[in-house]
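Q: what sequence does this backbone want?
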């Protein structure tokens, strides 16, 4: 896959990101791109995609970080297609949001039960 094809695939799947493709010593077997979403000078989200072409087929590794240029990577997913890898990463974040939402609700319920008992 050429760099132009890789950029086209990234833009088709995630058009809300501005993509930069990075040169690799291992091209064309390994291709890396970074996509950013920003508002003015504030970086809202960063998404990194590494496409690896090997004897066993193509693999996509995606990871993302939140607000700021130096924010740590929050999650990572790998799959055989770009869409599946991104969906897996999204599911990871949705599961984390659900888990933390339940914990916050339990704490809120406990706080109000304590206040009502007094």
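A:
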């Amino acid at each position: 896959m050429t760099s132009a094809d890789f950029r086209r695939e990234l833009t088709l799947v995630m058009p809300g990101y501005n993509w930069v493709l990075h040169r690799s010593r291992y091209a064309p077997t390994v291709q890396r791109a970074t996509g950013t979403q920003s508002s003015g000078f504030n970086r809202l989200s960063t998404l990194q995609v590494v496409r690896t072409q090997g004897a066993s087929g193509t693999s996509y590794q995606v990871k993302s970080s939140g607000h700021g240029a130096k924010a740590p990577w929050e999650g990572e997913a790998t799959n055989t297609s770009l869409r599946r890898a991104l969906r897996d990463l999204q599911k990871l974040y949705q599961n984390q949001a659900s888990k933390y939402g339940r914990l916050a609700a339990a704490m809120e319920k406990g706080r109000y039960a304590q206040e009502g008992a007094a």
